[in-house]
Specification:
- By secondary structure, this protein is of the alpha+beta class.
- It folds into two domains: 115 residues, D-amino Acid Aminotransferase, Chain A, domain 1; 160 residues, Alpha-Beta Barrel (D-amino Acid Aminotransferase, Chain A, domain 2).
- The chain is built from eight helices and 16 strands.
- The strands form two sheets. Strands 7, 8, 9, 10, 11, 12, 13, 14 and 15 form a nine-stranded mixed β-sheet that branches. It has a seven-stranded antiparallel β-sheet with strand order 2-1-6-5-3-4-16.
- A hairpin with a 2-residue loop joins strand 14 and strand 15.
- The longest helix has 14 residues.
- It is globular and about 55 Å long.
- The chain starts with a strand and ends with a strand.
- The relative contact order is 0.15.
- It binds pyridoxal-5'-phosphate (PLP).
- Pyridoxal-5'-phosphate binds next to helix 6 and strand 13.
- Its EC number is 2.6.1.42.
- Belongs to the class-IV pyridoxal-phosphate-dependent aminotransferase family.
- Its cofactor is pyridoxal 5'-phosphate.
- InterPro entries: Aminotrans_IV (IPR001544), Aminotrans_IV_CS (IPR018300), Aminotransferase-like (IPR036038), B_amino_transI (IPR005785), BCAT-like_C (IPR043132), BCAT-like_N (IPR043131), Class-IV_PLP-Dep_Aminotrnsfr (IPR050571).
Length: 287
Amino acid sequence: QWIYLDGEFVRKEDAKISVFDHGFLYGDGVFEGIRVYNGNVYKLEEHLIRLYNSAKSIMLEIPYTMDEMTEIIVETLKKNELSDAYIRLVISRGVGNLGLDPASCSSPQIVVIAEELAIYPKEFYDNGLDIITVATRRNSPDVLSPKVKSLNYLNNILVKIEASLAGVSEALMLNNEGYVAEGSADNIFILRGGVLFTPPGYIGALEGITRQAIVELADELGYDLREEPFTRHDVYTADEVFLTGTAAEVIAVVKVDGRIIGDGKPGKETQRLLEAFREKVVEDGVR
Ligand code: PLP
């Protein structure tokens, strides 16, 4: 496995960064997780726009244009001879002195890891997920916007820890007002009375690329889709619940905090959207 590390390709064993990197010391940086389907990098432009916006928000200047970054990603895939893959693109503030001030960091560190995709087990899709809501809250938009995909993923990590302590594979975070925000690395949709709902960005959620793809797909397929805040009660009493994300694609949820959703099996509309999504992914890529 070859890793792109600051302008060159190095073997996985040799891909190391300094302990003075501010990404390591302070979580100072941004990242993206991108999927490659059959040699096509799915929605690369959207991922790069989100990355550059995240970087702008934290005042980190990426020393490459989006075209150059595209080239780096395509080269990394070629070098690793991968056609179905998961790409992790990380940009940290780079090496500096101890101390929070990024002024001492000379240049951002750019890392691209491309690896074989580790997809969720098929049973997860066939049976749907049993999930919970956890005590960890989504950071509120007035602090550091949840729209910034930064290297500070502690809330999300705590969500995962709380989920595994409870013996489930995923969990939902609420925001500080108690509205449902998102999963640890997935957005949420619910279907109630024939209407699809997903929390609006201001609730505090990442603007997921998969979420946007589902919003567009739902529109094409004639669903009534509303971006409105909702509570746990709305989730418990929904007809269908599903999560969306780069790794998970579209995955049904069949139980939330012990409440069975619908008839306890992945919902029909969820299945339909997953199938439509999978048919479409191959068309939307950069080769
Ligand atoms: N929410 C968070 C916090 C995430 O990290 C992710 C994953 O990137 C998502 C949602 C889903 O977004 P996407 O569909 O772009 O993968």
